[in-house]
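User
Here is a favour to ask of a fellow structure person. I am asking you to supply a protein in sequence and structure-token form. Please set it down just below, with no commentary around it:

Assistant
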Amino acid sequence: VTNFKQPELDLQIESNEFPVDQLLALFPQITEIIEADTPFSAKGAGMLQASARGKLNDLAVKLNLNLDRSAVAYADVFQKNEQEAGNLHIEAHVGKDSVSITQGVLNLGKFQITAAGTITNFTQPKLDVVVETNAFDIQTLLAHAPIAKTSLSPELTVAGVGALRIVPVGSLDNLSISGKIDLTKSAIAFGEYFAKPQDLPGIIEFDATLTKDAVTIRKVQINLNGVILDVTGMVSGLQQQTMLDLSIKSNRFALNQLFPVKGMVMHPTGDTQLSFTIQSPLDRLNLASISAANLELRDVRFLPPQFSKPVEHVTAHLALQGQQLTIQQLSAIVG
């Protein structure tokens, strides 16, 4: 340590194996935040290697925290047990009221999260961060999130490999989040209604703003084998009764693009395009929640199970508004 009036540090720190909860107790400000605002817990043993170089208002910090023998939990959102390998590596510049993260890497077994960006205004933090994962086994990740068992439908099954990129920007009470989820290498099924096989292209891109009681969706684009659904709107009442006000619109796509998806028993061909609006409480969501819809069919062919011959050359334009269905165009040939 030099220049005591304006200290400059050049330190190397290395610990023995220590109880992680006792390490946190050495930092009263962190402990106070954790106890007041977050259901966070840590126990078990860890080992620390760190270095600090520079002035106190511009400190270059490197940290390696070995968590192989520790358990870490955040309510039922995230849990790591003591038997699982874990390591945290951070390289950052720490200022008076900001942190610039050059590299942050969290390893949990074969699952890895990397982060880079800035956090400013520690009293009311503002984020500008990029968070990415490696290609990870989805079931392994879900095992770290007990909330998934209670919040996801038991009819929903997900397996295979996924990858995630998230960019949070803004304050915690008004946070813009954009990013992408790549589920191409995953298999997804929902009961008897839907099944996406592994290796069928599946990508979700999103851009939204999260507040305490609402999510404003500027863009959610679901791309399933070239069939694109664009979603915009709002999810409100998160702390009371959750309400949906969403608009969904597809591109024009060939129905045979959905052939690999389970449930296409009528083997349709031809082109279609659709759009619809949903307005409903989340807990009462059903077909009646569709307040408006448009469906266009062009040269569609399908074979209903009860028919011996196909229905061909279906061209139609149907519009639903409230309880009224308008057939603006309809023609078809049977047999």
